[in-house]
Amino acid sequence: MAENPRGQSGAGQTRRRGAALEEAILRAAVDELTESGYAGLTMDKVATRAGTNKNALYRRWPNRLTLGIAAYRHLATTVQPPDTGTLRGDVLEWLRQANRYWSSPLGAVLRELLAAAGGASELLAQLHEQSGDAAAAPWLTILGRAVARGEAAPEALHPRVATAAMVLLRNEFVVRGVPTAPDDVLVEIVDEVYLPLVRGRGGVPAHAAPHGRPGA
Fold first, then answer.
1. What sign does the dihedral 65-32-39-169 (CA atoms) show?
2. Same domain, 66 and 130
3. Cβ–Cβ contacts within 10 Å for residue 7, how many?
4. What pLDDT was estimated at residue 212?
5. Which pLDDT score, from 0 to 100, does residue 120 have?
6. Entry's Pfam families (predicted)?
7. For the packed helices 18-36 and 64-75, what is the interaxial angle rounded to 10 degrees?
8. What pLDDT, on a 0 to 100 scale, did the predictor assign at position 107?
9. CA dihedral in degrees (66, 61, 104, 129; nearest 10)?
10. Cα 84 from chain centroid?
11. Cβ(94)–Cβ(142) under 8 Å?
């Protein structure tokens, strides 16, 4: 039996506190997000689903946006960057994975949270993909492999350079409002912007690319 609105435990059940109650609330918020999106997330619904009262939510999260972000972080998983053996292959595959994610129901939740957070940097930093170090880490891994293979110079290992392709893809969703980015857009981002940018750092010539053609 779930905890009732007054916080009393059911017969024979110990009242949930601390981490156990927080986990129940987050699970309830995750369920609400996946079923109704951020637009349908309310403190009342989460409290009811979790079998607790709103005070238990507000003691941990001051509003539904901070709860929504916490629930998203609880739901999101970490994916390792691809290792195809070439810089172009890695970047294109990583963008394709990101495109599929941003086009998914969970990606739609992320876009709603980003819009709701606006310019609040402290909230954006709580979204794993938006925090500087977390966003740059897989891209720096990809570029580090490229440096080791001789496809890029060490000067390319800069966070702003590393994440440029992802920023351009994110703009397709956030600024242009597309439901998904066509694959030819991803190829254009890689071949026309990202690879020239990376190879321009430290003067790596285009013929250093595998297969002997620009953008390969």
1. positive
2. no
3. 15
4. 36
5. 77
6. TetR_C_11, TetR_N
7. 90
8. 87
9. 50
10. 22
11. yes
Q: Does 50 fall in a domain? A: yes
The per-residue pLDDT for 145 is: 96
Q: Is the pTM of this model over 0.85?
A: no
Residue with the two structure tokens 């440029």: 164
Same domain, 108 and 194: yes
- Does any domain span residue 6? no
User: Which structure tokens are listed for 96?
Assistant: 């394709």
Per-residue pLDDT at 133? 65
**Does residue 159 contact residue 132 with C-beta atoms inside 8 Å?**
yes
Count up the domains in the chain and report the number: 2
The helix/strand/coil state of 134 is helix
Interatomic CA distance for residues 127 and 135, integer angstroms = 10
Letter string b/e over residues 148-167, b meaning 16 or more CB atoms within 10 A of that residue's CB: eeebbbeebbeeebbbbbbe
Going from the first residue of the chain to its last (216 residues), give the mean pLDDT of each consecutive group of 10, the final group possibly shorter. 40 62 94 92 96 95 94 83 96 96 88 83 69 78 96 94 94 87 97 96 59 37
Structure tokens belonging to residue 179: 């439901």
For 187, half-sphere exposure in the C-beta direction (CA atoms, 13 angstrom radius) is 5
Range of the domain at 108: 80-200
Closest by CA position to 97, among listed 82, 117, 111, 116: 82
CATH number of the domain bearing residue 110:
1.10.357.10
191 and 90, same domain (yes or no) = yes
Judge contact between 154 and 147, C-beta under 8 A. yes
